[in-house]
Amino acid sequence: xxxxxxxxxxxxxxxxxxxxxxxxxxxxxxxxxxxxxxxxxxxxxxxxxxxxxxxxxxxxxxxxxxxxxxxxxxxxxxxxxxxxxxxxxxxxxxxxxxxxxxxxxxxxxxxxxxxxxxxxxxxxxxxxxxxxxxxxxxxxxxxxxxxxxxxxxxxxxxxxxxxxxxxxxxxxxxxxxxxxxxxxxxxxxxxxxxxxxxxxxxxxxxxxxxxxxxxxxxxxxxxxxxxxxxxxxxxxxxxxxxxxxxxxxxxxxxxxxxxxxxxxxxxxxxxxxxxxxxxxxxxxxxxxxxxxxxxxxxxxxxxxxxxxxxxxxxxxxxxxxxxxxxxxxxxxxxxxxxxxxxxxxxxxxxxxxxxxxxxxxxxxxxxxxxxxxxxxxxxxxxxxxxxxxxxxxxxxxxxxxxxxxxxxxxxxxxxxxxxxxxxxxxxxxxxxxxxxxxxxxxxxxxxxxxxxxxxxxxxxxxxxxxxxxxxxxxxxxxxxxxxxxxxxxxxxxxxxxxxxxxxxxxxxxxxxxxxxxxxxxxxxxxxxxxxxxxxxxxxxxxxxxxxxxxxxxxxxxxxxxxxxxxxxxxxxxxxxxxxxxx
Length: 582
What we know:
Rossmann fold, GMP Synthetase, Chain A, domain 3, 3 domains, seven-stranded mixed beta sheet, five-stranded mixed beta sheet, 17 helices, globular
């Protein structure tokens, strides 16, 4: 914590103009270090000058293909240089980027396409199978490019191309292949000046939120620029220039990934792009890139530890002094676990890093981040402090009034980075957006927080996950936190099952480290823990055990809808305990 004055942190006057496009904001911030390395991909290094040359080339290609200001253009990318060029080229033209996930199946992609109806989709060949039928039926044009186009490994490229041909992920139409379009001469094409309008729609990203309703979140350029300005005020100024940030969080369809990318490229950093985004590759990529900063979900960070004799310790494959450059570490997507945080910090220290694992609260509706526990403003066990470009208030949902420090309240945010609204969905927008008596726009995140005397916020739970069992309110996060204190439990999620008499009953989905346990002994211990700390109404009506990690969405959060559906439809054997436990 810095000077114990966190709550009084004020927005400093920016040296850059946030009221411009993301492309122009990046150009302004980069003009004095064009020879520095902006991107790496494998052993390929791309300077800022080369970055802007490629963006300009891509913008001309896209303009020649008929893309204009205001057009909705779908992108389905993974973290390669081409993805960065495309995102900023579309922004330079003034087109609206619609981010589709390369990890979604054909049905989910179809739903997103119908929700947004883009003029064109630019996709990697890896994901082309999800768009083939739609481009014909909906008359959507496509452009394809290879994931390994920028790789210098010819064996990798040859094997990858063979696999895509085998899977039918290719096209013989030259004008649909980015590789062909890049060979054409665009010297005679001059891009028109694209007038920037403050607050206009620039991006649509998708979220299911806590309500489970799939929605397109409308965002704008000034929102992301302002978020970057707020984030960097939490760090030492010398953290940024010339440092490297690991870029494994998807930048095409995730707001958090895009904010990390934009933060790196507007602060004279090197963004180390990688296709090895899974937790199993995390340590090796940190070592390979010698990253100074890195973000990941809890599974990324827990990949650094293992359990021995019932205690978490640094993983045996870690080597001393391999992460001495790592200064900033951040966990997002899902709450950190107190049971593993100490071991993760021990693993970082073992590898020579001085970093303590940071945390925070974010949402797609706010361009990714809004409260951070990192940099100069760090306090163990807390979410952190708001970025100074946002206003925060905690509201008692029953009275509508702000709560006092130390009291639980629903967090409301106001500032330029909050969303415009949900795309073509005024009903869902009205559920979370409100205006106060001064006309100030506020976003209800639906999270319960508490503020301590130092101005740090602590996560309490989700408002919308609450349900009633009999006369009692059930807070799933409260149960999950208790379950995670049991050494047998890797992960847990609680879902409600409808009941005619009691309204809802808790259903437990528990991921165990091993199936080799005494289940009766475990359940007796669990019953005692839950009853003592919460009450009998929180005991499970069903338990679904697994030894696999719980299913997560593309943004790394546990997929609640999957488990709600499993409660109704799954044929997986569950163990009914209500009668046994009473």
